[in-house]
Amino acid sequence: MLDTQSLLEMIGRDEPLFQADLQQHGPFIDEQIANSRFLVVGGAGSIGGAVVKEIFARNPKVLHVIDTSENNLAELVRDLRASLGYIDGDFHAYCFDILGPEFDAFAAATLKDSQTYDYVLNFSALKHVRSEKDPFTLMRLIDVNIFLTKKLLDYARQSGARKFFCVSTDKAANPVNMMGGSKRIMEMFLLGDATDTAVSTARFANVAFSDGSLPHAWTQRLIKMQPIAAPNDIRRYFVTDREGAQLCLFSILQGEDREIYFPKLSPKLHLITFASMAEKYLRAQGLEPVVCATEDEARGRVRELAAQQKWPCYFFETDTTGEKDFEEFYTDAEEVDWDRYQELGVVRNEAFAKPDQLSEFAEKIQTLKANQSWSKDDLLELFSKLLPNFAHKETGKNLDNRM
């Protein structure tokens, strides 16, 4: 387990982001949370859990968390109890799927009893590029990233919530993969007509060591006495889970309707290759990385090298579908407010001008599901109609073909 300082050094920094902005706006954020009621969906994942912990620490009136992972929810509650204890307000963790009938009954009960929320937050997502490897997993990605979000947005508006927030991704800016494309379409659904429930979101970089990420996988490889693998030509921005949570809090509590928050690039936030990060990670564990020429060599040398406080690595050039060459948080076509914060930029959006296109997209997806037959090409065609500049990169290979 890495401490905060070791983690920052690994991603090329010596201090956390957003400190000046937190100092200026922190008292307002604390007061808003203490006087508000929150529903957090997907709240047991890495970023959702980090946001829950930030809210919990500020003693909200109500904090309800929903997630499909029973194990992650149990660990979230254990973490809160062991680190922060208890709050004066109502805290409860629920385990069910928003797309299932359980949420329908939950929503009906809250509306009937007028036990609604000031803030409805959604962190549910299928976030892996590898999820477009087959048409069935890809449809689940579309359901979760787009239609689950729309269902929650409709509930937030029906219940009179002050704000609906949904986390996005830097990969939604000029997307090259279906995951990023789904998040961009999600943003389009969010940027509809103005209502009494404001909507905001956030795009940010890779969260270092978040569940399911490549760096998180390295910890599993060491535990299981297996070699580490990483691309040597892909560079990414990294934030800690707490920095990601703080960025979300700014958007949740201060973002105006149809605004997207993102971290400004600066000497504090810069690109690092996965291979370089892997080497730093191993050295932080007291191990010297040894670069191997093939996967077979790396698999075969683990015990030999581990006995010498060394570890085998296999680094490779990327040739899998959907990997973006570089990361960006906004596009040239978007209006950005650079002056509101020291380390945060804010994309300001007009309402999406063609809601009929979104309706057509939703109807065609439902038709494909009703027919119980669709291909990846069918879904890619629908994406391309909504995203005319969608530069999907298909190589015929996916990440499951890599170690």
SSE arrangement, N to C:
HHEHEHEHEHEHEEHEEEHEEHEHHEEEHH
Summed over residues and divided by their number, the pLDDT gives a mean of 90
Spans of at least 5 consecutive residues whose pLDDT stays below 50 are none
What's the level 1 CATH class?
A: Alpha Beta
Q: Can you tell me the CATH architecture?
A: 3-Layer(aba) Sandwich
CATH topology (level 3) name = Rossmann fold
The CATH homologous superfamily is named NAD(P)-binding Rossmann-like Domain
Percent helix among the residues? Answer: 40-55%
Derived from helix and strand composition plus strand pairing, the structural class reads: alpha/beta
Radius of gyration: 21 Å
Distance between the termini: 23 Å
Major beta-sheet overview = 9 strands, mixed
Strand order of the largest sheet: 3-2-1-4-5-6-11-16-15
Number of helices: 14
Approximate strand percentage: 15-25%
Number of strands: 16
Instruction: Assign an overall shape.
Output: globular
Count of the domains: 1
